[in-house]
Amino acid sequence: MLQQRLTPQYLWISAALVSDGLVILSALWLGYEFRSLSPHALLPLDIYLGLAGVCMVCFWGIQAALGGYSPYRLLSRFDEWVTILVGLILAFGLVLSGVFFIRSISLSRLVLGYAGMLSLVGLTLSRAVLRQGLGWMRSRGWGTRRVLWVGDNLLLEDVVERLQRVPQLGFELMGWVGSPQDVPPDSLADHLPRVTDLACLSDYLQTHPEIAEIWFAQPHLATADLLLNLQSLHRPPLQVRLLPDILAFLTVNFSLQLLDGIPLLTLQLLPSSYWPNRFLKLGA
């Protein structure tokens, strides 16, 4: 019951909000202390801490708008770091813009500069710690979503390797669905069993409520009749995901053009008969 309520997603959002706020407050306090080491007339500390609270609220809102509190963005560490950097720049920029119009307040730019750099370092480290903690929870089964695999078994080995390498995603493959002739790779034959046929998938899920998702590596197998049967199951919500052929997906998307709102898919590009083509031929 406790694991159902305190899901990793809930804990991640709560811990990220608290740690982000503490890091920004601590960074501004440390920046103030560093600036106080040299003789200089500074405003009282409570003014800077009040601005830190405003900056913290702005950072929370910007991070929420950028999707910085989404647990599945933990995979891309660079994207996460860029999101933190953009959030800090916008948050401190909003605070400085607001204070600029208040003539009675003269802030120290060094204090804010120290606070910005310390916030970036502190948030990067805190997110790394949270990521490791989330991976530790996921690796011990806390909030793990159990998955059945349907379709291409050649792709299955690569997916299993990636999920094992990044346990903080929180997915565990329980088995594959298909006929006995669809043999998986030898490296998976022992610990990833075949559970049922595709025709008996609905009946199998009815008796195994721990299965939370189904991944179709061959989307054409997810027929309308099968999806309707899966939706009609009287059990906790079941999520169905389709894994597209990446090469075909990119080919279609890069070939898709819009003609005044009309989608056109170019299957073959005709050679150009104008001077650029002639120039390229001469150069070749």
Q: Provide the low-confidence segments as ranges.
A: none
The biggest beta sheet reads: 5 strands, parallel
Average pLDDT level: 77
Shape: elongated
User: What distance lies between the first and last C-alpha atoms, to the nearest angstrom?
Assistant: 70 Å
State the share of residues found in helices, binned by percent. Answer: 55-70%
β-strand amount: 5-15%
Instruction: Calculate Rg over CA atoms.
Output: 27 Å
Q: How many beta strands in the DSSP annotation? A: 7
Strand order, main sheet: write it out.
3-2-1-4-5
Which terms summarize this structure?
two-stranded antiparallel ribbon, Rossmann fold, 55% helix, single chain, 284 residues, five-stranded parallel sheet, 12% strand
What features would you describe in this structure?
The chain is α/β, with parallel strands linked by helices and 284 residues long. The protein has 2 domains: 138 residues, no CATH class; 102 residues, NAD(P)-binding Rossmann-like Domain (Rossmann fold, 3-Layer(aba) Sandwich). Helices cover 55% and strands 12% of the residues. It is built from 10 helices and 7 strands. The strands form 2 sheets. The protein has a 5-stranded parallel beta sheet. The protein has a two-stranded antiparallel ribbon with strand order 6-7. Strand 1, helix 6 and strand 2 form a beta-alpha-beta unit. Helix 2 packs antiparallel against helix 5. The longest helix has 31 residues. It is elongated, with a radius of gyration of 27 Å.
